[in-house]
Amino acid sequence: MTVFKLRLFITGRSAQSQRAIDNLNNICETDLPGQFHVEVIDVLEHPDLAEHAKILATPTLVKQLPEPVRKIIGDLSDRVKVLVGLDVERLIKSVP
Predict the structure, then answer these.
(1) Would you give the distance in Å from CA 4 to the centre of its chain?
(2) b/e per residue, 57-70, with b = 16+ CB within 10 A?
């Protein structure tokens, strides 16, 4: 079973940050049940982690594993875009 290691970089507890968190949780629980580990990183609290990951905008989702590493910028409201970004083509066919 493939486990997706994801990092979501946000800026504070803004409405856009919360929307990205909610959208990611919904996608993971619906499309990757039991196959994900999500770490939410606030760049205001951990600017060093954002700099190391070369985060230029927030919210940004970074898929660390499985490789290749991919970044998705935005509030993650486009489910198809997120699934393509996560390289989960098998799930795209089931998207309405």
Answers:
(1) 10
(2) ebbbbbbeeeeeee
Note the pLDDT of residue 75. Answer: 96
Q: Has domain 4-88 been given CATH number 3.40.30.10?
A: yes
pLDDT digits (tens, 9 = 90+) for 32-41: 999 999 999 9
CB of 51 within 8 A of CB of 44? no
pLDDT one-digit tens code per residue, 39-56: 999 999 999 999 999 999
Residues 18 and 24: their CA atoms lie apart, in Å, by 10
* Tokens describing residue 81: 């875009």
Length of the chain: 96
Domain extents for the chain? 4-88
DSSP E strand boundaries for 1-96: 4-10, 36-42, 60-65, 70-73
